[in-house]
Amino acid sequence: MHNFDYHRPTSLADAAKRLSGEAKLVAGGMTLIPTLKQRLAQPSSLVDLGGIAELRGIKPEGGGLTIGAMTTHAEVAHSAEVKKTIPALAVLAEGIGDPQVRNRGTIGGSISNNDPAADYPAGLVALGATVITDKRRIAADDFFKGMFETALQDGEIVTAVSFPRPDKAAYMKFPNPASRYAMVGVFVARTGGGIRVAVTGAGPGVFRATEMEKALAGNFSADAIKSVKIPAAGLNSDMHGSAEYRAHLVNVMARRAVTACS
What angle do CA 57, 145, 258 make, to 5 degrees? Predict the structure, then answer.
């Protein structure tokens, strides 16, 4: 590792003051710490958000849920409130990584990093969630910009995510057997605003399968999307699976998610 200063503020205001120069925020550290170990990053300082109590917790709000940015995957997975209000979100969290990752990784850190194979982006987009920062509120559709890129500005800190309660929702993914990252993950949600189908892992960023949404709006069944083809052009292709294979998996996972909604 390169040398850096370490800060562990106890308030959001103090954390914001520490974000100057090449400072980096630390949430769970699931991506940043390995990057530092490999000397691929050289921040001037690390600002650890782990000591800020106001960034943790899950609370019912407006019929849905608001989840603090420093809430771990394990806390989301095991929360009685999440299981009651949005059980599909608990299933998603339980499938992230391994127990060590779930007990350290956080929802705020995951979405701020925006790994193209992460699970939470699909959940946020499909559910029409809102990302809350110390400066503004950002709709999930506008938050995720591309591979490891979000709408966050310099010095902006994610404080929570607000989720509306869906009528029905389910998440299905085909995980990489080693990392548990999604080779393809599909989150299907039926809300007051209609049907939303969000895909992660398949491409360089989360995206909505609009043709599937249209088909499901007329007939909410797995058979309604069986013939909907996802173009392979632009999808990820690597040693774990070709773009064509991932395109096929999108349809398979989507049908499984729709069936799980029933």
Answer: 70
Other residues' Cβ atoms within 10 Å of the Cβ of residue 70: 24
Residue 63 CB coordination number (10 Å) = 8
**What DSSP element (H or E) covers 205?**
none
At a CB cut-off of 8 Å and minimum separation 6, what does 112 contact?
25, 27, 150, 152, 158
Q: 1-46 and 168-261: same fold? A: no
User: Among residues 176, 163, 17, 22, which one has the least CA distance to residue 90?
Assistant: 163
Question: Rounded to two decimals, what is the model's pTM?
Answer: 0.95
Fold of 1-46: 3.30.43
- Encode pLDDT of 44-67 as tens digits: 899 999 999 999 999 999 999 999
Sheet holding 45-48, edge to edge: 5-7, 45-48, 24-26
C-alpha distance from residue 101 to each of 73, 109, 226 (Å): 8, 12, 34
- Pull the structure tokens for residue 41: 């990053």
For residue 220, give the 3-state DSSP assignment. Answer: coil
Name the class of domain 168-261.
alpha beta
Sequence spans of domains, the chain? 1-46, 168-261
